Amino acid sequence: MPTHTSLSSLLGSSLAKQAAIARDRGDYVEAERLFRLAAPGDNGVSYSDLGLMLANIRRFPEALEVLELSIKADPNQVQPWVTRSLIYQEQGEVALALGNVGAAVCITPENPALLNMMGKLLQKSGRYKEAMLCHHEAIKRAPDDAEYYYQLGLAMEHEEAIDAARELFEATLARDPDHTGAYVGLCGVYYRQKRDQDCIALAEQAKSRSRSNAAILALAGSAYARQGQRTEAATAFRMALATAPNDGYCHHRLAALEGWMTPRAPAEFVRRVFDALANDYDTTVTGTTPYTLPQTVAEIAGRHLSTPVAAAIDLGAGTGLIGVAIRPLTEQLHGVDLSPRMIAKLNDRKLYDTVATMDALEALAADGERCGLITAIGVLPYLGDLSTLIAAAAKRLAPGGLLIVTIETQEGTGYALRPSGRFVHNLAYIEKIAAAHGLTIVEKAVASLPVPEGDGPVAGMILALQPAASL
After folding, report:
1. How confident is the model at residue 455, as a pLDDT?
2. Domains along the sequence of the chain with CATH
3. For a surface tag, which of 5, 240, 329, 433 has the fewest beta carbons within 10 Å of its beta carbon?
4. What is the reported pTM?
């Protein structure tokens, strides 16, 4: 004769089946009622199924409540931990998502999908070395799954293991020739390694398989532009804008190629340019010609300031090459850059008192102490109209303070946008704007300026400006 427990279990199983049928036909109210009736005595399975259903219809608070009941009933179930992780990812709670998928991995450490999921969350947390271990373990357990090679490639790229990342993106495409992300990743690596023809050929391959997108087209356009193939570059950027009309990078590159006038390079353009350059930035800037710009900046500051000043801001700080030279001249040194990858390099130097990922104009406008020294080396070529920056710098300078900038020069009036995407300026234009905001040029020197993108050096000038009232 069946026991009360077995009868209850049979009833619960029947109710759970009915709940699943109701769920599958979209009757979520009935499904919820039946799952709740089935839940007592089934070790949390129905609560887990109900939590997953509620998560799928985006009723996250209720889903989290029933998933908690499921885990209390049986903490060794995998599904409720995974569902909670997915909910927390949707809510942007990466740490909580990581903790829950970690619990699932502890229960089933051989599951490659969970290892990959954990690796992706570790990447979002900036923990790339740990992510690499997870993706590597996933590959060991499922060596034919292309996605795991791709994710390991992304982690390797963030750790600047570029050759390894390239091999992993190639391995991804060998297993899945239609993996769009791998085309993007591999085109990006080829572009960073200045393998422009390989980048272009891969973009064509992606197009032939209907896997092209704005990111791939942008990389191909950039590779064409670097090879001097302006017509092909413009075509690629137009195609990219057809699918992503708000892409600031592509819009600016096309404007530069076709001679449109814009007041400045979009932040997205600057960020993408310098993120791509971060790994080899110091070598590119210092390796081709004698690089004395940091020392020159420090010497100019020393001639016009009583040092150390209380505070200095290094705008467009990059990897900190200028900071190394001016650090002895200031008690507090603040670094600002738009590129997260440059900021990571900046942090590695442990040279600055604060660092911030932000736009130069935003940094100058922010509340803060007035500065005895502001440097903007390599910043103005990404701004056309300089009135806003000069005005903001003039307000932020302490009495007697010094602003040091570099410009790429032109003979024409005002400013112009070159095919490279950088702006050139006329000295008279700078003098006029400076005077309008109470600044005067106290020192200027012709300079051969390095170009991070590698197509330099170019003709330019170093200018030092001070408030006229303090002279």
Report:
1. 64
2. 1-108 (1.25.40.10), 177-260 (1.25.40.10), 279-470 (3.40.50.150)
3. 5
4. 0.85
